[in-house]
Amino acid sequence: MTQDLAAFAREKGVKYFMISFTDLFGGQRAKLVPAQAIADMQTEGAGFAGFATWLDMTPAHPDMLAVPDPSSVIQLPWKPEVAWVAANPVMDDAEVAQAPRNVLRKLIDEAASDGLHVKSGIEAEYFLLTPQGDQISDPFDTAEKPCYDQQAVMRRYDVVREICDYMLELGWGPYQNDHEDANGQFEMNWEFDDSLRTADKHSFFKFMTKSVAESHGLRATFMPKPIEGLTGNGCHAHISVWDAPGAAASKNVFATDKGEGQAGELGLSKQGAHFLGGIMKHASAFAAITNPTVNSYKRINAPRTTSGATWAPNTVTWSGNNRTHMVRVPGPGRFELRLPDGAANPYLLQAIIIAAGLDGVRSKADPGKRYDIDMYAEGHTVRDAPKLPLNLLDALREYDKDTELKAAMGEEFSAAYLKLKNQEWNAFTSHFSDWERQNTLDV
After folding, report:
1. Would the pTM of this model clear 0.85, i.e. be above it?
2. Superfamily of domain 9-98
3. Is-contact 253 242, C-beta < 8 A?
């Protein structure tokens, strides 16, 4: 049943709606709309100039209208007079094909036509820094192995508790919070859900975490590698596929008691193994989506950190309950993709997983050999597994070569994404750095 946003406002005491969409670079764009005007906006959408955001448009394009999806509405727990609502961009009465939420919705419908309903949960790691973003906010957070440090997490209790309280209030089912492997780094987990709902929650979580941190005089960042020498911000995704969406789901079609092959031994059905096969087949290409910034490749190709491990992959391998691989299968019926980082666009992250997995199911892709070794210590012995891209340009080239994946994500989206991301790479390469001066001034 469609939620009437005007009635929602009257019932909840909402004065303003934040109609929000996410652009190709993951930036959240919004207009603040008075509740008195929301009835028209719910039908017609809020107007934006697409060129003013990171979308492949020009100043000559007509208005892009962000039509709110009432099912996504969330009243801000820290400012209850405002409600956030995710929107689907439309132009000239047609959905904008390059808009990330539209890309995801299209793929969800396509998977559903094959009887596949993807559910996922994500682990969105973040750092709490000083307002300038140049150092960790807690001067006492200096342990060599700070993961799960109870003193450190309690020193930031007010921030973590406030965010978790809000997730409890929103009914997300948060179940654990901890200090992560890097100094100044935290992770908060909540229950998995249908992929679109997870993407909406992921977007809102980033917005909420930054807002709460700012209210405490701190700065939260999901940047993949904000501090040199420390573990970076991952965004691991836990993936399963069900027989129906939402509460109607009754069967995990990835799960099996006695499956065939190396994946079946771990409790993945044939369909689950093929879905995993699609992930493995397209991994080098979809790094352009899951690891979308120049900085991303400082995490997945990082030297040993001060804690002793990067906890990030650099090779396309999978395993059982082993965190040194790109994919781990911790138990029956699901697997964890450990490649994505904190810069991943919440909607494109879910979309690329579905696109790769759906291709794997349709083509009956083989995930390849399972490796049950410590990749950090013995990875040099693996000769037949592809290495992940070394930088953003390599990832973009891999994506551009993967015609199947580009088509699955949508040709218009793929062309726009590659164009703008190549422009970003060119801007990076034209930037003069201190490293250049230090190493070549006296050449």
Report:
1. yes
2. Glutamine synthetase, N-terminal domain (3.10.20.70)
3. yes
At which residue do the structure tokens 């750095």 appear? 433
Q: Torsion over CA of 128, 130, 134 and 138, rounded to 10 degrees?
A: -60
Q: What single-letter amino acid sits at 250?
A: S
Fold observed for domain 107-436? Creatine Kinase; Chain A, domain 2 (3.30.590)
Residue ranges per structural domain of the chain? 9-98, 107-436
* CB within 8 Å of 54: residues ≥ 6 apart: 23, 24, 25, 27, 420
The Cα 239–Cα 361 span in angstroms is 14
Here the contacts of 423-431 (C-beta below 8 Å, separation 24 or greater) are: 424/25, 424/293, 424/294, 424/392, 425/294, 425/392, 425/393, 425/396, 428/294, 428/392
Closest CA to 338 of 203, 238, 224, 197: 238
- Residue range 106-155, pLDDT digits in tens: 999 999 999 999 999 999 999 999 999 999 999 999 999 999 999 999 99
> What burial class does residue 32 get, using C-beta atoms within 10 Å of its C-beta: 0-12 exposed, 13-18 middle, 19+ buried?
exposed
Cβ neighbours for 166, distance < 8 A, ≥ 6 positions apart = 77, 78, 208, 212
Q: Is residue 2 very low, low, confident or very high in pLDDT (cuts 50, 70, 90)?
A: low
CA geometry: angle 242, 243, 249, nearest 5 deg: 75
Residue 303 pLDDT greater than 90, yes or no: no
Place of tokens 């090779």: 315
Could you tell me if 47 and 65 are in contact, meaning their C-beta atoms sit under 8 angstroms apart?
yes
Question: Count of CB atoms within 10 A of residue 136's CB?
Answer: 19
Q: Per-residue confidence at 1, pLDDT binned at 50, 70, 90?
A: very low
Q: CB 240: neighbour CB atoms within 10 A?
A: 22
d(CA 315, CA 339): 10
Report yes or no: 119 and 196 within 8 Å, Cβ to Cβ: no
The residues pairing with 19 across neighbouring beta strands, listed in sequence order, are: 31, 85
Using alpha carbons, list the distances in angstroms from residue 109 to 88, 104, 113, 196, 354: 15, 9, 6, 11, 10
For the segment 202-216, the average pLDDT, to the nearest whole number, is 98
